[in-house]
Specification:
The complex is a heterodimer.
Chain A lengths: L1 E4 L9 E8 L2 E9 L5 H4 L5 H8 L9 H14 L5 H27 L17 H13 L2 H4 L10 H29 L8 E2 L2 E2 L5 H32 L13 E6 L8 E7 L2 E3 L6 E4 L5 E2 L11 E2 L12 E4 L8 H7 L1 H15 L3 H4 L2 H25 L18 E9 L2 E10 L2 E8 L1 H5 L11 H6 L11 H8 L5 H5 L1
Antiparallel strand pairs in A: 1-2, 2-3, 4-5, 6-7, 7-8, 9-12, 10-11, 13-14, 14-15
Chain B lengths: L2 H16 L5 H12 L4 E6 L5 H7 L6 H8 L2 E3 L9 H13 L2 E6 L2 E2 L7 E2 L2 E2 H10 L3 E5 L1 H5 L11 E2 L1 H8 L5 E4 L6 H14 L19 H4 L3 H5 L28 H4 L40
Parallel strand pairs in B: 1-2, 1-3, 3-7, 7-9
Antiparallel strand pairs in B: 4-8, 5-6
Helix pairs in contact in B: 1-2, 2-9, 3-9
Classes of the chains: A alpha+beta, B alpha/beta.
């Protein structure tokens, strides 16, 4: 029997999932992206420097990642290298953004799948924010939090209330983290002072201290609330170490290198085995996507939209690496990099007694995200200490320069690894292609009929609550879907 | 909360949204109305990036918990609501029947390629038409929704603003434009609180933007205006003090309150962080392909 979640909420954008349920389990799944804007095509004919301001607006949830990736592709096109401060600032902005994006994902987007907010009705404590929320939930029964699909939620107040309290506190931390981003970038979402050659902000001790102070507060929240909450949820829902397994194929571009000791190393994992990364093995297949054309490398492909194409069911393309569907996200960076793999796996062993196989799971992905939030904030602290206010922050590019050539930017996003590719002739863009994390994860089937990573991970998911499909929602959200990004 | 505390709280909000304590009583009345469930908010997205929603989630004045519990009765929001799937469609349909909501719309509307945006099993345009018809008023949140923005720069989908959509479909509803990419969250909360409190739209300019938030071109309130007067221009980003006009700053032709209200806990704004204004709140954003966003400082005299 085919059931669907349409629309899926608490994600970015317009996503639909259809599952074929047999004997109480998902037999097969189809994920459809349902919104197209055509960023790659609208960039053609524009000046290269516009790409950075325009592509950063691919997504307002992953709001700094495309700007940074584009700036790297443009630096390659203009053949310039940012000064050390410029590289550090880009890393800081990216890492800071990704860590608050992780907080946003776990609390705002994912946690309502696990916790019943009405448990708040028996709260007896004194926290004014919690009391206001309690009063509100009890007296008004707000649709926002009470209209939920049936499921096995955490209802006992002892566990639920601290989680709801952390949910509330997370809003404060998001707002606080955004103010750190604004300190360096002017505003969040979308900093307008990040350029190919660096960041144009005036680097003052004042700014550095302000950001450092906020990073400490965020780190404290991650250590005392985020990681413990993620652990608590995973302990309550142990079965989710065995739900949402997917392919054991991972993609990492490496990254966060400006301090001199890279946080992540590039690499590929296929069926659990590690290989070196070769980006020229990447193609984007469109056989089940609303585009005309063949599977091509980003260096060759064109985006030719064709809504309603026969056999197609999604606006998302299907990137493949040597023909393999690949998963990307915090889990891929962490498991491909030797040092973080070791520390993450020992954390899983210690807390849950599980190993690498169970890391490929709904719980594994959510825990890797929490783990990465800590790694990123620690990295920001290191990077802040290396900034030198006396030195230059940027190499300025002439926006009307008559540039001809190509540029490749490999970068990171909260949801995985991000690639921007640009071609320009006489100062005008002739091609722009993005291969985006959620495009990898949420891709439809390819010409061989291989399901995309999330489609694969959904296979075997138990469906005890057919009305509303809570379990399916949990598996999908463990990938932190971003539809705006995936289609762009 | 006793009555005194309550009024003090209303005064704080009045000050926040209108710049004056005078409206505390009106705000108090608005709360009573909200408590009675008189006015709701339905938030829908078209060809959007959720940037305006995230701006709201990052909001500090007030923060989200305060906002949703005390200021607006958010019936549905795609990023916050706990519901999913069919249940969402039931909530939306219930609201369409109740006809008691202000519609906040984020993103552009694909008017030619209808399949470029769907909600549930429907084209966005089908749902949007009903959602506008049954609303009390429409708030176009962000530049895409106000003017078409980046999606409209691509001609494939025929993307237009929600305001243009209303015009083409002959839908007459009071509306407000809140451009900005994304728009400052205070503009959204302030506008909605105002509509609820006073049962009318705030004072608008000829383009239906609230005068409170779009009082003048950015340039005229810019902290670096003095540099402009003295002809001290930045021509390389390693210069940190000077007017950014020659780099392509769009402050002189873009109306918004960025230099006055700033962003993210009043921390900063683009020019303060030495980035030229790109005119993200301008009706012409992202600017014609030929001219682009930035300029060669050596060319500008």
């Amino acid at each position: 029997m085919v059931k669907r979640i349409s629309p899926l909420t608490r994600i970015e954008g317009h996503l639909k999932v259809e599952v074929d349920v047999e004997n109480g389990k998902v037999k097969s799944a189809r994920v459809s992206g349902e919104m197209y804007r055509g960023f790659e095509n609208l960039l053609i004919g524009r000046r290269p420097l516009d790409a950075q301001r325009i592509t950063q607006r691919v997504c307002g949830v992953c709001h700094e990642v495309h700007g940074i990736a584009s700036s790297k592709a443009l630096a390659d096109l203009y053949k310039i290298e940012p000064p050390p401060n410029g590289k550090l600032l880009k890393d800081i902005i990216l890492a800071l953004h990704m860590s608050i994006d992780h907080i946003l994902h776990f609390f705002t987007l994912a946690l309502p799948d696990y916790v019943d907010f009405s448990a708040l009705s028996v709260y007896r404590g004194k926290d004014p924010k919690l009391n206001r929320l309690k009063e509100w939930v009890v007296s008004r029964r707000p649709w926002l939090y009470t209209k939920k699909v049936p499921g096995n939620y955490i209802e006992d107040p002892q566990t639920a209330i601290p989680l709801v309290a952390a949910y509330i506190e997370a809003f404060d931390k998001l707002s606080l983290g955004a103010s750190a981003l604004a300190t360096l970038g002017g505003k969040a979402p979308f900093a307008h002072n990040v350029f190919p050659g660096g960041v144009s902000v005036e680097l003052t001790m004042d700014r550095i201290m302000k950001v450092s102070n906020i990073v400490d507060q965020l780190l404290y929240f991650v250590k005392t609330k985020y990681i413990p909450s993620a652990v608590e949820v995973a302990k309550r829902y142990r079965e989710y170490f065995y739900i949402g397994h997917g392919y054991m194929n991972l993609l990492s571009y490496g990254g966060f290198e400006a301090t001199g000791t890279p946080l992540y190393t590039p690499g590929i994992m296929i069926n659990g085995k590690l290989y070196p990364l070769d980006v020229d093995q990447i193609v984007e297949d469109v056989s089940h996507s609303y585009y005309d054309g063949e599977a091509e490398s980003f260096r060759k492909e064109e985006t030719r939209p064709h809504y309603g194409k026969k056999g197609a069911y999604s606006w998302i393309k299907a990137p493949r690496y040597k023909g393999h569907p690949m998963e990307t996200g915090p889990i891929s960076r962490i498991l491909v990099t030797p040092s973080t793999r070791e520390s993450f796996l020992s954390f899983l062993k210690r807390e849950f007694g599980v190993g690498i196989k169970e890391a490929f799971s709904t719980n594994g992905r959510n825990l890797a995200r929490a783990f990465e939030a800590k790694l990123l904030l620690e990295y920001v602290n290191k990077a802040l200490s290396k900034l030198n206010p006396k030195e230059s922050t940027i190499v300025t590019v002439n926006p009307e320069a008559n540039v001809t050539g190509t540029g490749l930017g490999l970068s990171n996003a909260a949801r995985g690894e991000l690639l921007h590719y640009i071609e320009a002739e006489n100062g005008r863009i002739t091609k722009y292609q993005m291969v985006v994390p959620s495009t990898w994860n949420f891709s439809p089937r390819d010409y061989k009929g291989q399901p995309g990573p999330v489609e694969k991970a959904l296979e075997g998911t138990p469906v005890r609550f057919a009305e509303g499909l809570i379990e399916v929602g949990r598996v999908i959200r463990s990938y932190d879907p971003c539809t705006a990004c995936s289609i762009h | 909360m006793d009555r005194r505390e309550f009024l003090k709280y209303c005064g704080k909000i009045s000050l926040l949204f209108t710049g004056s304590l005078l409206f505390a009583e009106d705000i108090a009345r608005a709360f009573v109305k909200i408590a009675e469930g008189a006015v709701n908010i339905l938030w829908l997205q078209g060809q959007a990036c959720s940037g305006d929603s995230v701006s709201l989630l990052y909001g500090d004045s007030p923060e989200v918990p305060e906002l949703i519990t005390s200021i607006i009765n958010l019936r549905f929001h795609p990023v916050v609501s706990v519901a999913q799937g069919e249940l969402v469609m039931r909530i939306i349909n219930q609201e369409l029947k109740n006809k008691d909501y202000i519609l906040c719309f984020e993103g552009a509307v694909p008017y030619k390629m209808l399949g470029a945006c769907k909600i549930g099993e429907f084209y966005l345009t089908e749902i949007l038409k009903k959602a506008i018809s049954s609303s009390i008023a429409v708030v176009a949140v962000g530049t895409c929704s106000s003017y078409g923005g980046i999606p409209a720069a691509n001609k494939e989908t025929g993307a237009i603003s929600v305001v243009e959509f209303m015009k083409r479909e002959g839908l007459n509803k009071p509306y407000v434009r809140l451009p900005g990419c994304p728009t400052n969250s205070i503009r959204v909360t302030g506008t909605v609180a105002y509509i609820v409190a006073f049962e009318k739209l705030p004072a608008l300019d000829t383009d239906n933007r609230p005068i409170l938030y779009y009082p003048d071109v950015i340039h005229n309130n810019c902290q670096r205006f003095q540099y402009f007067s003295q002809d001290r221009y930045i021509t390389d980003y390693n210069q940190k003090r000077g007017c950014l006009f020659k780099m392509g700053c769009r402050g002189p032709i873009t109306k918004a309150d960025c230099p006055l209200r700033r962003y993210n806990r009043n921390t900063s704004w683009c020019v303060d962080a030495n980035g030229p204004c790109i005119g993200c709140a301008n009706p012409k954003f992202p600017w014609p392909a030929e001219t682009g966003i930035y300029t060669d400082p050596n060319r500008i005299k």
